[in-house]
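job 3f2a | input accepted
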Amino acid sequence: ILAAVAALALVAGTIPFTSAFAQNQPVPCPDGASCLMTGGPSGDYFRFFAKPTTENLAKTAWEDLVIATSNGTPDNMKAIAENKNHFGLGQANVAGMLIDTGPYKDKVKIVPTQLIGQELVFMVVNDALFKRAPFYGTIASNSANVKFVLPSETSGPGVTFKQLSELDPRLKNSKSIVRVESVDDAINAVANGQAQATLVLQAANPENPRFKLIKEKGLHIVPVRFQPMLNMKMASGQPMFVACGGQEIGQKEPAN
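job 3f2a | predicted structure (256 res):
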């Protein structure tokens, strides 16, 4: 959970959450309201975690929070920095980097929550690439010849790919990165041949339709089993990431 430095608690949402979820439509924060900023309308933070988060904390002082969508963690941090009555859900590695390197050090704090927990980190690759490079290490070693697709540099996958590249020198050979609007756009770009691979961060929620999309498109999950990345910790000491394997979508992984 992201909160203003002066804030201590998170509270109940008051929007018609079910109808917004069903229509998959953006829900902006109304002028003058105090909001729980989440992510895109198709994302886990809005679809699965916002409502129980606010319900669990409904007895705190903030009884009029509105659940709102956003463009992700950087947008949420900006909103919180500008209005101490806003709260947000965000990825710990993205928020931590922006606090360390951006203008939010004294304005936004990270409050760990057990509701969401660790993020799965994996690559989604097309069949041709999977046949010759079925492991993260082989993809990284041949990154100069891999066409990647990612959302913006300030998105969760964008920031994480940058961090991963800094930890793993092999990825610095990546010369071809296509930019798209969203994670689902990136997955579709791999499926339609615009690119060969994308990096995905996903809350450990098997109900997320993104896993169904990956399977329907005939794509493959390649877990990022790179220890320096998996060693990254949240403030609580819990690892930030888990190397997601294909079992989440019923995919058998290749033998080591």
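job 3f2a | The chain has a mean pLDDT of 81.
job 3f2a | closed
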